Amino acid sequence: TATTYVMPSRVRIYVTIENVEPFKNAADAYTNVTLRASKLIDKVKAMEGVIYVQTTGLTLSPSYEYRSGQRIFKGYIATYSLLIESNVESAGKVIAEVVNAEADAIKWIALTAPDNVIENAKKEALRKAINNAYEKAKLIADELNISLGKVLHVSIGYTIPIVRTYTQMLEYKMVAEGLPETPIEVGKGLAITATVTTVFEIS
User: Fold this and answer.
1) Rounded to whole angstroms, how far apart are CA atoms 78 and 148?
2) pTM of the model
3) What is the pLDDT of residue 188?
4) Around Cβ 64, how many Cβ atoms within 10 Å?
5) What is the dihedral of CA 185, 169, 175, 8, to 10 degrees?
6) 31 Cβ contact list (under 8 Å, min separation 6)
7) In this structure, what DSSP letter does residue 23 have?
8) What's the CA gap between 132 and 144, in Å, rounded?
9) Virtual CA dihedral for 146, 147, 152, 158, nearest 10 degrees?
């Protein structure tokens, strides 16, 4: 096993737009969130440092409350989900602007890096893990006074964590303008771990 660290250069921000109060008509609930989502998407796309914006979901469902054991229809709730990826330097401002715009909830943010950077880190971790596996096998063989032969089997695995660093629910009606930027700390980076299991022939 070996681990290498990658410094995150990007932040993924998962936000939702939803009806705070149910609408009596399903079409009104749907229209409310889709129009607000369109405004938010246009605003975010125009911001410096935003890499991409992706729709991740849209739900429309009836809302009920229960009184004295009876289910009472209240209306319809619609929710629109959006994933925003920006560079680390711009993420704090993007989050503040999202809250000031149309978003009702920030579900989480996650530190990440470009795919090619992750792949290079995986290769580096794998090389280290292979060397570690051989050195440990050689040490055991030497202690037991046996010799290592050819490799009979190799299995490889990786662990690439998604570091979710922030969860905050926000009531849309209570959000004030002029929010400060959210501070983003990358810490020691993303831990990319490679695990190698090797079976040697011995003699």
Assistant:
1) 64
2) 0.78
3) 85
4) 12
5) 20
6) none
7) B
8) 18
9) 90
pLDDT tens digits for range 116-135? 999 999 999 999 999 999 99
193 closest CA partner among 128, 112, 125, 133? 125
Beta strands at 105-112 and 148-159: parallel, antiparallel or unpaired: unpaired
Whether the Cβ atoms of residue 119 and residue 84 lie closer than 8 Å to each other: no
pLDDT tens figures, 166-180 = 544 444 444 445 567
* Confidence category of residue 162, pLDDT binned at 50, 70, 90: low
138: left (phi over 0), alpha (psi -120 to 50) or beta: alpha
What tokens does 63 get? 């809302």
Q: What whole-number distance in Å separates Cα of residue 15 and Cα of residue 57? A: 11
Mean pLDDT score, 180-203: 87
Pairwise CA distance, residues 107 & 56, whole Å: 13
Residue pLDDT, tens place only, 72-89: 999 999 999 999 999 999
**Tokens representing 165?**
């660093």
Under 8 Å between Cβ of 96 and 179: yes
Rg of the chain on CA atoms, in Å:
25
Q: How far apart are the first and last CA of the chain?
A: 25
Q: What is the pLDDT of residue 169?
A: 47
- Note whether 75 and 29 are within 8 A (CB): yes
Rounded to the nearest 5°, which phi and psi values hold at 34?
Answer: -70, -35
